[in-house]
Design goal:
By secondary structure, the chain is α+β, with helices and mostly antiparallel strands. It has a domain of 80 residues. The chain contains 2 helices and 7 strands. It has a 5-stranded antiparallel sheet, with helices on one face. A hairpin with a 5-residue loop joins strand 4 and strand 5. Helix 1 crosses helix 2.
């Protein structure tokens, strides 16, 4: 399925293997556009990387599928739910677009994030 982002900005790009793409580009294969759906997963921090404009991290699920995350969202994630030894975080996530890049974020409102952080203090 292909889509014009100007028609529906809610769609996010995945490659044919189920990896969330940071940009709507792949050197070969197909881009699959999907509506973002919340998902629960225990993800492991895979790597830090640098894009054209900003740094980001890549999370891996138990099937080694990749999910990029902006540094802004990474800091929010660490502040809100923390990271377990080994670089793991178990949470509910959702794909979204921030600026010109796609990635995941915690599926929580700002209010819920503040409540969780206060519970950890």
């Amino acid at each position: 399925m292909t889509a014009d982002l100007d028609d529906d900005k809610a769609l996010v790009p995945y490659d044919e293997f189920g990896n969330l793409l940071r940009a709507a580009w792949t050197p070969e294969g197909e881009i699959v556009w999907r509506a973002p759906e919340p998902f629960s997963a225990r993800l492991q921090l895979g790597q830090f990387a640098r894009g054209r404009a900003a740094g980001y991290v890549v999370w891996l699920n138990d099937e080694s599928r990749m999910f990029p995350m902006s540094m802004t969202e990474f800091v929010e994630t660490v502040r809100t739910v923390g990271v377990e030894p080994g670089g793991y975080v178990e949470a509910e996530w959702i794909a979204h677009r921030r600026g010109g890049a796609y990635g995941i974020q915690l599926y929580m409102s700002r209010r819920e994030r503040r409540q969780v952080r206060r519970g950890h203090d």
